Amino acid sequence: MSRRAGTSLTIDCATCPVQDVGCAECMVSVLRPPVPLEDPSASDLPLDRREREVVSRLVASGLVGAENATRARAQREPWSSYDGVANVANRAG
Fold it and tell me: Structural domain boundaries of the chain?
């Protein structure tokens, strides 16, 4: 997988499509403890193109099973820390 300059990958347990299901076998949970959702009443949304691509890569690498991936849903959040980081990086660039 090639990487473009200025891009980053953020792995956030709070937005994981298999949160609380695949944590026992996930390497990310070893690196960082799961973060609870700030808004548990957030409604489920279909995954966008980039999210589907990421889930497909997780399945291809064996980190997520295909059956669990089919149930993946996005959740609306009032603010994402990734957006803040991306905006700061864009302003600095």
Answer: 13-78
pTM of the predicted model over 0.90: no
Backbone angles phi, psi at 85, to 5 degrees: -65, -45
CA angle, corner 63, sides to 62 and 68, nearest 5?
95
Tens digit of each residue's pLDDT (9 = 90 or more) over 29-69 = 666 655 555 555 556 778 888 988 999 999 999 998 988 88
Task: Tell me how far apart the alpha carbons of residues 87 and 80 are, in angstroms, rounded to a whole number.
Answer: 11
Nearest to 74 by CA among 6, 82, 34, 49: 49
User: How far apart (Å, rounded) are the C-alpha atoms in residues 93 and 75?
Assistant: 30
Residue 43's identity, in one-letter code, is S
